[in-house]
Amino acid sequence: MKAWEVKLVKAKPDVPDPLGFTKNLNDVSEGEARPTQLRDIMENKVKTFAMAPAGQILMALLMLYMSGGGLNIFMIFFTFQVLVQPIKALVGINGAFKQFEGYKIPLLPYKLMYAAIQSVILSIGGYRLYTMGLLPLAPADWVDLIPRRSSPIASFAIMN
What we know:
Elements: H1 34-51, H2 54-66, H3 73-91, H4 93-96, H5 108-132
Helix pairs in contact: 1-5, 2-5, 3-5
């Protein structure tokens, strides 16, 4: 045999199997607990999915803070982006959680948590619109809609 040749012959190893190792998947003794373990894993995934938009809160705050306080096209673009993403997420909430149906997990609390986080992001965008002066919330913004009172007395000036 040359120095670089290797014989590929199955030999019995002298090393015993590690603790907890089984050669067949059916030999697992806790096979009864698998559906509940799968349910717990999926419930944790649903919770993680519902809490994922919480990271966008700090991103939205930082993005709007860094864009400045003036009224320019970039500021309006960033604010529009902060407003549109939560609206899209709220409209498609059932489609987003469709992947978790069928595991006998109550999805309503997680959908409400997801909607609450998206609403917080939406309110951040609304506050930014208010600080830029683009939301008509002050009484002075609605002055044009107040009907003017006409005076019943008419005055005329006669000039010679």
